Amino acid sequence: MSKEQQNILTFIKFFSGIGCTLGILLFLMSVLLIDSYLLAVTGATILVISMWIFGIGLFFVLIEGLSIKRHRIE
Fold first, then answer.
1. Which residues of 26-58 are buried (b: 16+ CB within 10 A; e: fewer)?
2. How many CB atoms lie within 10 A of CB 16?
3. pLDDT band with cut points at 50, 70 and 90 for residue 70
4. Is the pTM of this model over 0.85?
5. DSSP 3-state of 29
6. What is the pLDDT of residues 38-59, one digit of tens each?
7. Residue 34 to residue 56: CA distance in whole angstroms
8. How far is it, in rounded angstroms, from Cα 64 to Cα 56?
9. At what angle do helices 37-73 and 3-29 cross, to 10 degrees?
């Protein structure tokens, strides 16, 4: 894995981790403390979107790495 790919992956991990943490905290706070349905849905949505962003970013980094290896072979 190249240095650029590692930097992109670190960036994606950092911001997805922040989003997951924020989503979990918002969800738990709204369910346990506030009893707000709207905040619970918002927290769960932030959590799921953060996981999707991480998955899509990881997918793009892996696809780019495979295409670079393929070009070197040919």
1. bbeebeeeeeeeebbeebbebbeebeeebeebe
2. 20
3. low
4. no
5. helix
6. 888 988 999 999 999 888 888 8
7. 33
8. 12
9. 170
